[in-house]
Amino acid sequence: MTGARRLQDAGRRPSGGTDLCAAPAAAFGFAGRKGTLAVGADADCVLIDPALSRVVTPDLIHSKMKRTALEGQRLSGWPVLTTLRGQVIAENGALVQSGGGRFLPGPGLKA
């Protein structure tokens, strides 16, 4: 099953796909703060259009690292809205504001 198909199937469930995030968040010790849409959680969210397809190019990757192993591949399921701590930081492929991410130490790690 492809990643896009898993996202499409997850989006049809009542959980809205949040179950795709809860297990990794718990595995890294962030349950309750990450991987959930709940009061008190960080409110980080990415809305994906599973029908949207793009060929990966460096200008599509909003990262300091402009190289990717996926360059040249056509992928389905692209983000259309990204929020960080409840603020929109990207919409329809364009950065709206700087993300301002923060390092969160997991169990056994120091900031």
Describe the structure.
It is a single chain. By secondary structure, the chain is of the alpha+beta class. It has two domains: 1-38, no CATH class; 43-98, Roll (Urease, subunit C, domain 1), CATH 2.30.40. Helix content is 16%, strand content 26%. It contains two helices and four strands. Strands 1-2-3-4 form a four-stranded antiparallel β-sheet, covered by helices on one side. A hairpin with a 2-residue loop joins strand 3 and strand 4. The radius of gyration is 15 Å and the shape is globular.
Features:
globular; 111 residues; 2 domains; Urease, subunit C, domain 1; four-stranded antiparallel sheet
The CATH architecture of the largest domain comes to Roll
Separation of termini? 37 Å
From the alpha-carbon coordinates, what is the Rg to the nearest angstrom? 15 Å
State the name of the first-level CATH class of the largest domain: Mainly Beta
Domains, number: 2
The largest beta-sheet arranges its strands as 1-2-3-4
Shape descriptor:
globular
Average of pLDDT: 78
Please provide the count of β strands: 4
The CATH superfamily label of the largest domain reads Urease, subunit C, domain 1
The name of the CATH topology of the largest domain is: Urease, subunit C, domain 1
Structural class: alpha+beta
Strand percentage:
25-35%
Number of helices: 2
Low-confidence stretches: none
- Could you describe the largest sheet, including whether it forms a barrel? 4 strands, antiparallel
Helix content: 10-25%
> What order do the SSEs take from the amino end to the carboxyl end, as H and E?
HHEEEE
